[in-house]
Amino acid sequence: MMKNIVFLLLSILLLINLSCSDMLDVESKTAITSSYLFSTPDGLTRAVTGLYVKDRSITTDDATGFIVVNMDYSTDLMVFRGGTEASLARLDNHNPSTGLFASYWNMYYQIIGKANEVIAAAETMDMENEVVKMAWAEAKMFRGRSYFELYKRFERVYLNTDPTTIDNIEGRTFAAAEKNEIFTLIKSDLDDAMEIIPSVPKKGQTGNPEYGRWTKPSVKHVRAQVAMWEEDWDTAIKQCEDIFGDPNYELLGSAIEAFQGADLNSKEVLYSYQFSPNPGGGNSVSGGVVAGHRLSLNVTPNYKKVSGLANNLEYGGYGWGRIYPNTYLLGLYDQAKDKRYHELFRHKYYYNNAELLPAGKKIGDEVIPTKSNYIECLHPSSLKYFDRWTNADNPDRTSSLKDVVLYRLGETYLMAAEAYFHRDGGSSPKAIEYYNKTWERAGNDHFSGPLTLDILLEEYARECHFEGVRWPLLKRLGLLAERVALHAGDTKAEDPKLNADYIHARKNFRPERDVRWPIPQTELDLMPGYGQNPGW
Hints:
By secondary structure, the protein is mainly α. The chain is about 40% helix and about 5% strand. The strands form four sheets. It has a two-stranded antiparallel ribbon with strand order 1-5. It has a two-stranded antiparallel ribbon with strand order 2-8.
């Protein structure tokens, strides 16, 4: 809540004892007081660890916020069957009182509030102390990125950079900041952070890098995203090329390699949410087992419902069959040349359960979908969240401990290509060079140009689908309504195997409303005069 942004001490004391992968697997500490947190270098470090845990929490439990934002809801690339936040996928029956809007808003304002405390406390200490300086920089990154995420979805944002205290909570005036104010703060925070945060994570107590912490390239990646929103092509290019010049990061041999394995700490991944089976490794613990996240369930078909199929690791274990690539996205690949068509998606299933084989079928025969089972059980599916690593002992497990990629170099190269395209035109040698980084890696012939915006948008789709790139990209370019109207979901004519048209978002998208989210009603109730977003 905005008017009484008071974070319970017990909550942060819980958060500060959790972390990510190596960083997350810390011993529980006791006797930590609020004054200790914000008056000692070690206390600041613990408070920042709490920010990492809070930020990662968007992927845990039902993970609805992450799924809506990162799995291309309400864009031209996704077909939605049902389930998770259906009203936001279909753009019906949602309003300012829809719970996700408030939880997303509150999550980032909670991060901002705690980051404000860390920043203010650090500035009263010895800023030459490396521990203090690092905590300050990481808190700056969290605050800047949080405001950026809020702006992209809500636009009208309330700015606050002061710690909330009993002395300043009453009588506060709430008003939406101007865009230039918001971006000035975001840029200042990110610029401060990148000056201090190192290129690779520092080593922790175990001697291993503390994967899961911000790095200079991850901060620069977000800074480039911000520059793209401001059409500051020079800054976007500089930030991207700084990343390209860092020897610690490079594209892997194929896009799918960045998503394979339990620990996604490769040279291509700039930042990922870390998970492990140890206490503190992700979400709640029940019966000694860490719960993890349920992202893979949403994109994995419910193939086990088909007679002759059983859950197994090859197919990703347990699935709900809710969110899929649509025919527009799949049609963008050259199936004969572009490796991504086969590497990033599963297209076929084969009988694997001898006890329930249909008559006349044998193990290994291809399962042919019918109209009744296709959309839920046998639809082509994304493998970016596929997990056969952390569930190796139990393919029926309904959660995953696989790391979750947030930012990677595939998008960085495409941002650089787009920035050069806007600045220098479609024949820009640099724009074409950077475009070819992902295009040729996938097995396609060298592209010699000229580039067009449509060509760039198609490569963004092929490379970065289901990574949280599409919605803000189309919104930034003013193309969201147009592209949703053209391609969102699928009709039976576009995909004859469907049992119905799945084009709710295509039909329901209202440009005056759905290019932004509403200010949550719970916040408006606490902020008289703040005002609702247009269309809501």
